[in-house]
Structures are given as C-alpha cells and as structure tokens.
Amino acid sequence: MSKTVFILGAGASYSHSNKEFPLINDIFKVAKQLLVTSLITDINTLNLNYECVETYINEKFNKSILDSRQKLNIEDILTNLEIDFEKTKSNYLQIIRDKIILIILNVFHILTNKSYYYKRNSDYFLFYNQLKDNDTIITYNWDLLLDNILDREKLISKIKDRNLYEDDIENTLKKQYLRMLMDLSAYRDYYNFRINAPYEKYHSEGYYLKLHGSIDWLYCPNEDCGLYSKVFPIEKIIGEEYLIAEYKCRECSSKMKHLIIPPVLNKNYSSFPFVKKLWNIALEEIQSADELVIWGYRLPPTDFYNRWLFRQKSDKLKKVTIINPDCFKKIKNKELKRNKTFLDPFLDIFEASKIVPEISYYENYTDYISNLKYFDKYR
Q: What are the sequence ranges of the domains in the chain?
C-alpha cells in the first residue's frame, strides 16, 4: 500500500481559515486586533501584564507590539531573547519569554474557537476526507484547527477518564490523532501500560506528529518527578477570558508548562524527550514514504533540523508535491516565474537524490485534490 506523508506549515491553517489565522510574523498584529495586548495597560491583571514584553522589544528592536503597522519577526525576537538568556540566566528574561508564549496561546485559542473554521468546504475538512489510514501528518503548527477535526476533544475526554473502549477505537475513522494519544503521549502509560519489544524493521502506521509542540500539550518540568517531561494533551487550555488555565502535576504538584517550541535558531529539541520521540518517528515515516506532500510550509535558511529531516528520504520516494501560492510569481499575460527564494531550498534537497522524484506544484489544496497543477492553471 502506498504511503503519503503530509508536511504542514502555517500556510495550511492560514488557508483553512480563509487567511484569518496568522502567519508567524503577524502574531503580534493579530494579538492587538483581538485585544490580547490590551492587558499591557490593565492594572487589574498584573499576572498577565505584558509591559515587560513591550519594553524589551522597544529597547532591542525599536518597535512596538501595539503598533499594528510594524512587522515584527517573532523568530528574530525569540532568538535574540534566547541568546540574552544564555548570557545572563536572568529570571526577568524568562518572564518575558513566558509572556510571549502566553500571547501565542491566547491568540491561537481565540482563533481556533471561531465557528467559521468548521465549514465543511474548508481545507482541513477536504483534507480529512482524502486522508488514508496509513497516511502520516507531520505539522509544525501549534494550533488545534486540524486536531479538532481529527476528534481531539472526544478522544482526550474518553482516554483520560479511562472510558475509551475497543468500539471507540474501531469507530474512529481517521486514527492518526488516536495513535498519537495512545502510542506516544503520557496517556499510553496512564490508560493501558504496555512495553513494546525492540523492532528490527519499522512497521509504518499513520501518525499525527506535531514537531514544534501544541497549545494543548502540558508537561511536568520537575526533573525529580516520575512524570518529568511526559506530555499530556488536555481538553481545556483557557479558564476565564485571556487567562490560561493553571494545571498542576498529579504526581508532584509542580505547575505544568505548555510545550511550545518557539521558532528560534537553536530549538533545543533534546530538552523534551517526547519531542525527540516524535522526530525519531517522523524520520521513520519519511523514509517509508512513496510521496511527500509539503503544504503551506516554507523552509527557512536557518531551519537546519528540517533540512536534515528531508534529506533522510529514501530512494523509494517517487513523488514530491508542493502546495503553496509562493511557488511561482505571476507576471503579465499569466506567465509564471519560478520563485527561487521559496523553491530553491526544496529543489536543492530533492533534485540531489540519486533517483529524482517527480515534483509537482499546486497553488492551494483545492487545486491539489482537483489535480489542477500550477502550470495548467496559468498557462
């Protein structure tokens, strides 16, 4: 049976939400529109006051998170913050980092709950209907748009209450998210403790792998705790409006932390054993793939981890499909010009193969399922 691995970036959620979900550099702008950053001046919410974030960005970048006209590169900001923290180990810088993560959590939670994301002709619903049981989804997105379509809330509720039965497993149509919960997350031990024997040859199944974390993932940061670094996806991440619900570890009562890996140069995956496990499985899945579908993902120059991951493809890879409006630039008379900045990082990897796979381009997901390729559409 042929194996397709879908690799999703922020552009997939952006397209599914009819361009209302933010791309990475628009998060502060959307936070202002959603009134998240209005808490900077609200003296009644000192625990959520973002004034330190505003001060840091103003001092280091001469920009303001309150000015929606300014483009703020969140990768630059968080990378600069990480380097400052390495030099000083300042608790104040750690607070700033936590506040930025809090902004991300609030923005994505508010947008995820908008009802229009559940229109049946939206991209993720079309994707759901096309998904085969052994297809794997690798995503770099923190949001829950696709998770919810894959029955996230129902499955978490049942597994944490130990009410997940064989009929539920059998009746779950798309099992990628279910396998992540039962085979990879902390619920594996909580629900049904088992140990798998070592394997000699990898058996590929369909998984849902979020390599940069998720806004609903919690872990215990206490290294002396038996649950240290184990990840629990949760149903409810928000308490009152703009207030992240506070969870504590049942084993040691430490405050649980959200597992979000920011878009920084040194992503430090080794600090999170669960994420290392996801990367190992992602590697096996990519090496098992007959086709890679790269949807809404841009390969940044500094993303060395993903460049490495893509280079591990096997010679059995027959096809690479890239779904992104940035593949080509439209010029006069409907002519297309290759967008070298966007495409060359991918072509450097896939055209360097011993057996070069067929490479196809689509402007959006609807075109992909209709097999309307970029060149057929505009020439």
A: 1-20+117-379, 24-113
Distance between CA 357 and CA 378 in Å, rounded?
A: 23
CA-CA distance, 335 to 65, in Å (whole number)?
A: 39
Q: Tell me the two tokens of residue 3.
A: 């194996």
Rounded to whole angstroms, how far apart are CA atoms 120 and 16? 11
Rg, the chain, Cα only: 21
CA distance 118 to 9: 19
Give every CB contact of residue 227 below 8 A, 6+ residues apart in sequence. Answer: 186, 220, 249, 250, 251, 252
* pTM for the predicted model, two decimal places: 0.91
Q: How far apart are CA 72 and CA 57, in angstroms?
A: 9
- pLDDT 10s digits, 243-291: 667 889 999 999 998 898 876 766 677 778 899 999 999 999 999 999 9
With contact defined as beta carbons under 8 Å apart, do 269 and 276 qualify? yes
Q: Could you tell me the two tokens for 80?
A: 């600069």
Spatial distance between the Cα atoms of 266 and 133, rounded to a whole number of angstroms? 34
User: What gap in Å lies between CA 50 and CA 33, rounded to an integer?
Assistant: 15
3-state secondary structure 235-262: CCCECCCCCECCCECCCCCCECEEEECC
Report strand pairing: 328-330 vs 336-338. Answer: antiparallel
- DSSP letter, residue 133: T
DSSP-derived pairing of the beta strands 291-295 and 319-323: parallel
